[in-house]
Write a structure and sequence with these properties.
- Helix content is 29%, strand content 0%.
- 4% of the residues are buried.
- It contains eight helices and no strands.
- The protein has a domain of 109 residues: Roll (Dipeptide-binding Protein, domain 3).
Length: 222
Amino acid sequence: MHHSPHFGLIDQLAARGTGSPLAPERVGRIPPILNWPTANSCSLALLRSTQNCAVKGLTTTFTPTSAQYVLYIAGEVDWEHGESLGYTAEKIATLKRYEEKGGYRVIPAQYSQNTFGVVYFNYSQKDPVLREIFQDKRFRIALSIAMDRDEVNEIIFRGAYFPGQLRPDVGSRYDNTLPQFYHYTQYDPQLANRLLDAIGLQWDKDHKVRLRPDGKPLNLVV
């Protein structure tokens, strides 16, 4: 289903009372199905670069994690993606320390995966009990505010990141300023427990594990 970007607020106002599917008073009804715009056909061709005509091939080396940094510091690696560094401040600091000696550069970069550590629940879980729990917004909020993101950031990443929801990259038109990007990111275990109580996920007799509505322990494998 495609909504044409050519119809904005002015078009909707102009369509008011005309019976047009774009009229504001028709919001909530079955949306119209508009045709996708036709694009010009094109073809792609693979051409050898004249600037790298002497290159005979590309060598890919797979090494154990413990041996990677020896190669990095020795300047034996042409390029390495930051994800393989483990996102830890210590590893990045070590590489920065040997930059000049190894003849390489550590370049901070932003890419599409600007948010990591996001947990998604399977709303179509085969277990009907878990499916009902996952689909309850209060459960998801409780788990979110039960995590101390600041502590995780300081202990594991040495404060290199900032907690928040899945959101646009820093420097985008929103620039992480909208309050929606921080909804339910505060650390509030008391409120989290109250939400779980309200759902009906009671404690076991030892007050250590939450129980599902069917009486079984609520265990989640992440």
